[in-house]
Design goal:
Layout: H1 2-36, E1 40-45, E2 50-55, H2 88-105, E3 109-111, H3 116-121, E4 125-149, E5 152-174, E6 182-194, E7 196-203, E8 210-217, H4 221-251, E9 259-263, E10 268-272, E11 278-279
Parallel strand pairs: 1-3, 1-4, 2-4
Antiparallel strand pairs: 4-5, 5-6, 6-11, 7-8, 9-10
Length: 281
């Protein structure tokens, strides 16, 4: 019996040691990528156009059954607030400028349209991130509020406008001179913003009823361009972290159950459950 217990103790120690060693190795490789893999070249192809989409309701959603809506729709057929005002070229420029600027801060060498030959002459790791589609989605949603008071349950909703920036990258790692020698992936990311609502339930002194007292801080045109800039910055970090995790996984002989991210603010490696991009292929 003692021999079996000793064996189990050793097995647990070896297992824990393997896990800790695996974590340390992943972190070491990620730090090596940040510090040493500086000869990275990325070719960026901008999107051919901005795809604008408007929905009168959130995709697959709406107010809950029996839920009151504080602000009713002004028209039977609502119209977009921003899509008609935003110039496609301006929005795309904001997105691409932010993307390129953040890549520079990450010490990634990027190349744009007309620089394909210069890109092909570079030595070191070379990657292509083609913005196959850039989409700006505007839709109407509902900010829900819930409260319990003296055994009663109260709920209400306020109508808001939501904007989503979605991007699909066609990613390829250039391994050699042959154009057929490419590893292709379709990568997706999404970033959103919306009207901001503050609210609380109060008792109406004249009727005694409980009602929602809310104030809406609506989006502006500047917020739309801020979304384009923010999405560009975040996608640049996604590109860097995608390459970081690709590098780490190529060096390891086992699969990590988490993803490693470089935190630009604190200059450290952190672990997350979700990948930088959602693979669509």
């Amino acid at each position: 019996m003692q021999l079996i217990q000793r064996f189990l103790q050793l097995f647990v120690l070896v297992l824990l040691g393997s896990i800790l060693y695996g974590c340390t190795t992943g972190l070491q490789l990620a730090n090596r990528f940040v510090l040493e893999e500086t000869n990275i070249h990325v070719l960026l192809d901008p999107p051919p156009a901005l795809n604008k989409v408007f929905l009168s309701d959130a995709p697959g959603e709406g107010p809950a059954p029996g839920e009151e809506v504080n602000d009713t729709l002004p028209d039977p057929e609502p119209v977009p607030r921003f899509l008609e005002e935003v110039e496609d070229s301006v929005y795309i420029d904001y997105f691409m400028d932010a993307l390129q600027h953040r890549l520079e801060l990450l010490y990634v060498n990027w190349y744009g349209p007309g620089q394909e030959e210069e890109f092909s002459r570079q030595e070191g790791k070379k990657y292509i991130f083609d913005v196959a589609q850039l989409e700006l989605l505007e839709y109407i949603d509902y900010e829900a509020f819930y409260a319990e008071h003296r055994g009663g349950y109260h709920r209400d909703s306020v109508q808001i406008t939501v904007l989503e920036n979605s991007v699909w990258f066609e990613f390829r790692e250039v391994n050699g001179e042959d154009p057929e020698d490419l590893d292709e992936q379709l990568l997706f990311s999404l970033h959103a913003t919306s009207d901001y609502v503050e609210g609380r339930f109060v008792r109406d002194r004249s009727t005694g009823d409980i009602r929602l007292d809310s104030e809406t801080f609506p989006l502006t045109r500047n917020d739309v361009l801020d979304l384009a800039w923010f999405a560009g910055e975040q996608n640049a970090e996604n590109i860097f972290n995608h390459l970081l995790n690709r590098y780490v996984r190529q060096q390891l002989d086992y699969e990590l159950v988490y993803y490693l991210y470089y935190d630009m603010q604190d200059h450290r490696i952190i672990e997350r459950e979700d990948p930088p991009f959602i693979r669509m292929d």
